[in-house]
Design brief:
The structure is a homodimer of 422-residue chains. By secondary structure, chain A is an alpha/beta fold. Chain A has 2 domains: 130 residues, Aspartate Aminotransferase, domain 1, CATH 3.90.1150; 253 residues, Type I PLP-dependent aspartate aminotransferase-like (Major domain) (Aspartate Aminotransferase, domain 2). Chain A is 36% helix and 12% strand. Chain A is globular and about 70 Å long. The two termini of chain A are 34 Å apart. At the A-B interface, helix 2, helix 3, helix 5, helix 6 and helix 9 of A face helix 2, helix 3, helix 5, helix 6 and helix 9 of B.
């Protein structure tokens, strides 16, 4: 690896432009409304605004709500939205139709998924999960475990197979493994297929959190016979702030799997208003309450971004972007500690950099128009949403990082650490 | 009661106009965007669109999401919204600040409320609720009961006190009573203060569902020492389709009450990303996952309708409207069976009419520009949202009802019963 010199920026820039030409077919920036001049590397926290969302929402408010009023539940498809939008998400996670329902938050969806898993495997009282999970996942796991009498055992996904064998040998059968496909902090992509197969081999169900993978990496839920999965839609799916989450339940479980949060929307005959709950056939039984229609409308319009897009080509673009970003940072700021794996098959769609003054670095980058994210205690997280980012954007980010660190801009006293929302 | 004659409409109309003049101070129709000529009697299913919502939402989409992006979590108050909007709802339900949190659906909020109640009264394994509850409430009650080992006993609210005494005598202590303040079907207003006092007298907690009362009748949660309450915001609060629900937990319970759906938003130190859940102090511990921000923005703007409004005066207006509607129907269509109580103190903000062909009646009324609601099997529900309805509207509705029934319009074959969403 060559040290940075005066020639380096130009060589890097020539290469960035060449790569952008090569990947021009997957440049979907025109489908978004992004502020000019901004390099937005936080699409894995809040995806950018797709074109068409504002108009769809204005119609939903002024025409559907304002003018057609309550009839819109039928006339504008509000009632069917949780399953219709679920079917729009399905191909993005490798699911055939009829297995994905949209609504509520990831927290609620994961709570449902783990309860359903516990009831499907009643005599296997151990839940295996990642100690490095996103906090909510750990809280939900602990909460459900307390309710159903599970013991939670934490090992990273790459130790799951060994742990499954060890626990079986100890007479402690695992009912479910619950993992995230991509680590939110490091960007590491885990082996969904391998861990799922190992879980099944041991008699356990596999539950996946796709928050940091759906829309960015290939998932293949049906192909790999995943049992249950959840995900948010406001990151790489660009559904807008707090857009509703989704739950996938494999078709083979849809008869037996139970919904711990029954409401009238999930009833077999909702309008009969019966006093006793009878779950709807199919994935509809996992509907909870009345979904936030306006947020749902925004999400549905946002998913138009993926229309006609080859997900494999998008993943190729993503890998090229993160690979190039890595190269550029290694060349321009060689001392930095890059946390995200270099190997394509172990990398999600982000690059995380470890730095003792990570918060100041993120703030100083933002002042230069490069928006990344801070993850406690010391991670600068650069999310790479392939549809609207270019290799030239990656170079701009790497150069900004060098300028910030060279100039000590990250030590500006204004950046004293404080609570930061993402 | 005089039979309808040719003079009747004029006398009724003179009276309607006189009453509208008398209540002109609470006519808030200018605060809404309603289609001209429509008499909208389904505001207890989906409230009308308040002015200002469309503009607030456009700003949230284009400026906050589209331009300011993830920084909006801080800069535009998205993070604080669940508690800030909760404090905006608080005065409408008679709660001091810091006891109401907004987000998720009523189903989820009721699930949280009942679990919290069960943990607060661990040795009292009976839940008392209304057999005529909205179906979701019965499903949630049955689901939570199964999880915590409660027995559900159903008696109407006016028999609660007797049932509490009987169950105590049988050695079956009641942990909580869970009732709706207004019956969704009949419009009957129950005695929230009396039932709450009786519950407390018996050692039980009182949990109220305010879906059909908040924004329409006086609630007085603090005054009557209610323990927990939930409600939706898309009926008389006009928050828009599927706008987020709320949960009230009385301050005295906020140290001990536990959240069965813990997520990182409800953690004491959310940005520390700690692996173990520690609930936030106060009502913030009942936050669940990431809230649907766009739906939340619409709700917050919608609540502006109530700014500077005397809720007592609004209730007086509502009672005058439903009283007059009753009089007009009794005069114009004397044979009809009016289900909603005639006494002011037992009437919510609707008038329900029983008719064997109720569905056809609702459809035929709609064809005449009077939008009511059908509730299985035989109820025509006329919701009266006082802020945007007048006594002249009530007369228009009563006349339409007479015309429909006189002309047999409700027997149009096009109105053969089918599933209807509200």
């Amino acid at each position: 690896m060559a040290p940075p010199d005066d020639e380096a920026p130009d060589r890097l820039e020539i290469r960035a432009r060449e790569l952008d030409r090569r990947h021009a077919g997957t440049d979907l920036r025109d489908r978004f409304e992004l502020p000019p001049g901004l390099v937005y590397l936080d699409g894995n926290s809040l995806g950018a605004l797709p074109r068409g969302v504002a108009a769809a929402l204005e119609d939903a408010v002024r025409v559907q709500w304002g003018s057609d009023l309550v009839a819109s539940w039928n006339d504008h498809g509000w009632w069917d939205a949780p399953l219709r939008v679920g079917d729009a998400i399905a191909p993005l996670v490798g699911a055939a139709p009829g297995q994905v329902v949209v609504g509520d938050s990831t927290t609620v969806r994961l709570h449902q998924a783990l309860h359903a898993a516990a009831r499907l495997r009643p005599d296997r009282p151990v839940l295996l999960t990642d100690p490095g999970s996103f906090p909510t996942d750990l809280y939900v796991a602990a909460g459900v475990a307390e309710q159903v009498g599970w013991t939670v055992v934490t090992v990273p996904p790459d130790e799951a197979e060994t742990a499954l064998a060890r626990l079986a040998a100890e007479g402690r059968p695992v009912g479910a493994v619950a993992y995230s496909q991509v680590d939110y902090r490091t960007g590491r992509l885990w082996d969904l297929a391998g861990v799922t197969a190992a879980a099944h081999e041991a008699g356990a169900l596999a539950v996946w959190d796709l928050c940091h993978s759906a829309g960015a990496v290939e998932v293949g839920l049906d192909l790999h016979q995943v049992d249950l999965a959840v995900g948010c839609t406001y990151k790489f799916l660009n559904g807008g702030p707090g857009s509703p989450a989704y739950l996938y339940v494999a078709r083979r479980h849809l008869v037996e799997a139970a919904n711990v949060l029954p409401g009238w929307h999930g009833h077999a005959r909702p309008f009969a208003m019966e006093p006793t709950y009878e779950p709807a056939p199919g994935i509809g039984r996992f509907r909870v309450g009345t979904p936030p229609v306006l947020s749902m409308v925004a999400l549905e319009a946002a998913l138009g971004v993926f229309e006609g897009v080859d997900l494999g080509a998008l993943r190729t673009r993503s890998l090229s972007l993160t690979r190039y970003l890595r190269e550029a940072i290694e060349e321009l700021v060689p001392a930095l500690d890059l946390v995200t794996p270099a190997e394509d098959e172990r990398r999600g769609s982000q690059l995380s950099v470890r730095h003792p003054e990570a918060y100041g670095v993120v703030r100083a980058l933002a002042a230069r128009g490069v928006l990344g994210d801070f993850r406690t205690p010391d991670v600068v997280r650069l999310g790479v949403a392939a549809p609207y980012l270019t290799h030239v954007d990656m170079l701009t980010a790497a150069r900004a990082l060098r300028a910030v660190l060279d100039g000590g801009e990250h030590r500006d006293p204004a950046y004293a650490l404080r609570a930061q929302v993402t």
